[in-house]
Amino acid sequence: MNSQIKEKGERHESPALSDWTTPIETANNILRMRSSLAFAISASLLCVGCFQFTQGPQGNLQSVGVPGATIWKSADASKPITPEQLGYSPEEAAKLGGPVLVEPADSSTPQWRYRFYYASNNQCAADLTKMLAARAQQNITGPAPYCTMTPPQPSLQGHGLLF
């Protein structure tokens, strides 16, 4: 009787079954790989020293990168701003046309400025010449104003340092 119990109690493992991984082990391996990837990305950013990002007017992330190189850019970031988005009525916006004078934000003015002109009397080039002459006379640095047919969405730039 005892010999029968011993035979039933013995366990024989197949070598093929011991090579299999359980779902929990697979999940742990995936988690370990993702953690390693996240660490590698963080370490590479740390080696660079800092990262930068831009946000749209509603706080949407538009781009992420390191100084001098964009790593990711949103597809929505390239849509030009329209007069209606800045508060013009559709009737008034229909009268506007031609190049738009864009004054990017700088250290003295955190807001972007847009000067739309009536299509019948667009003075963008003349106003830009006056503004650039005034900037040169006052030794103003920072982003210069410009005329464009596709004014960009305003963006907030941020910088960070990883420790």
Topology:
Blueprint: H1 2-9, H2 15-18, H3 23-48, E1 50-55, E2 61-66, E3 69-73, H4 90-94, E4 100-103, E5 113-115, H5 124-137, E6 146-148, E7 156-161
Antiparallel strand pairs: 1-2, 1-7, 2-3, 4-5, 4-6
What does this structure look like?
The radius of gyration is 30 Å and the shape is elongated. The strands form two sheets. The chain has a four-stranded antiparallel sheet. The relative contact order is 0.15. By secondary structure, the chain is α+β, with helices and mostly antiparallel strands. 35% of the residues lie in helices and 20% in strands. The chain has five helices and seven strands; from the N terminus they run H-H-H-E-E-E-H-E-E-H-E-E. Mean pLDDT is 76; it is low at 1-6.
Entry summary:
The protein is 35% helix and 20% strand.
Which term fits the overall shape? elongated
Proportion of beta-strand residues: 15-25%
Question: Count of helices?
Answer: 5
* Contiguous runs where pLDDT drops below 50 for at least 5 residues: 1-6
Features:
163 residues, four-stranded antiparallel beta sheet, disordered N terminus
